[in-house]
Amino acid sequence: MSRKAKTQEAPEVETLKAETQKVETVKVSRPPLDWGTVLSWGVTGLMVAGLVLVLLKVNLFKSETGVTETIDPVQTLSVPLPSLASGLPVDDLIRIANIDTTVPDGVRQFAVKYTVVPGDSLFTIAKIYGVTAESILWANYDLLNDDPTFLKEGWVLTIPPTNGIYYKWKEGDTIEKIATKYYADPEDIITWPGNHLDIANLNTENLIDVNVMIPGGYRDVVSWITPVDFAPRSGATQSIAGPGGCITPETGPIGSGFFQWPVVNNYLSGFGFTSYHLGIDLAAGEGSAVVAADSGTVVYAGWNDSGYGNLVAIDHNNGDKTIYAHLSQLYVKCGDNVNSGSMIALSGNTGKSTGGHLHFEIRRNGQYLNPFQVLP
Prior knowledge:
Elements: H1 3-28, H2 35-56, H3 73-76, E1 112-115, H4 122-129, H5 133-139, H6 141-144, E2 156-159, E3 164-168, H7 175-181, H8 186-191, E4 211-215, H9 238-241, E5 280-283, E6 289-291, E7 296-304, E8 309-315, E9 320-330, E10 337-338, E11 343-347, E12 357-364, E13 367-369
Antiparallel strand pairs: 1-2, 3-4, 5-12, 6-11, 7-8, 7-10, 8-9, 9-11, 9-12, 12-13
């Protein structure tokens, strides 16, 4: 082919190529899909379908086993209880009482009985039952005779339900009379649940020989302590003081007036100082060392029948005297001079005592002092 022919064909070829590119350009430049329109139609279709289901009352979530109904708890309260099955004994519905000798929780309404065992004291028993030792003492006068130091194994004590006087009603007693006698409030006696008194129809004649609780009541207690004063300067005689007394010289070591603890422990194991217990019961196991609380002269050393058991009394020759009771062994004799802190005996459980301890007294010019007020 000549160069001229090739030159003439060029425009046609160029035109064909241009058209081909145009076609490809058209395919590539196709407009994108309108998703907004698609979503709009989709939502519209779902709404129409839902409307149709509602009109047809079709429940897509209905369970094949049925729908569980919710019970209104208020309505259940009005449902009558089923009648008692025929043939069921009525006694089967009665709760059997739980007989228990331990102290129940809360406030008791009635007295209980307690049997004394070795090692007991009114102090420990009172702590167990949550009442004062005085309340137990008052409730058991026939056994204790106002002596708080002596308990005998096997004795059965009456433990009142609360603090106060547990009183056996007598003929002629009235609420006002008994309340006045024991410094109590008449209303407290009437309203105490265990007394079973009818406020609207108060008849005390039915109370004769019945024990009645007088909450908060109290009475004076006769001191059980028999003074043990034997020395030429005291005016007592040996026979009054007991077999442990002797004739002592009129002079001897003079105490400082300052006392030390007679045993290692300085806390109570029994009664403290009261109007009827004119000393303190210090914790001291049997066989513990007992020392002189101050310097002086031993004016009594031996057995004493008034309840002290083995006893040592020291005259400090300055108006003071100390008493050490319930001892198991004595290391001094009457007439000995002792220094403050010197060993005089071993603690014990003799006389009117239950459990090892030391009964300690301080007397000044014939008056009883609370040892806790003068001990360091």
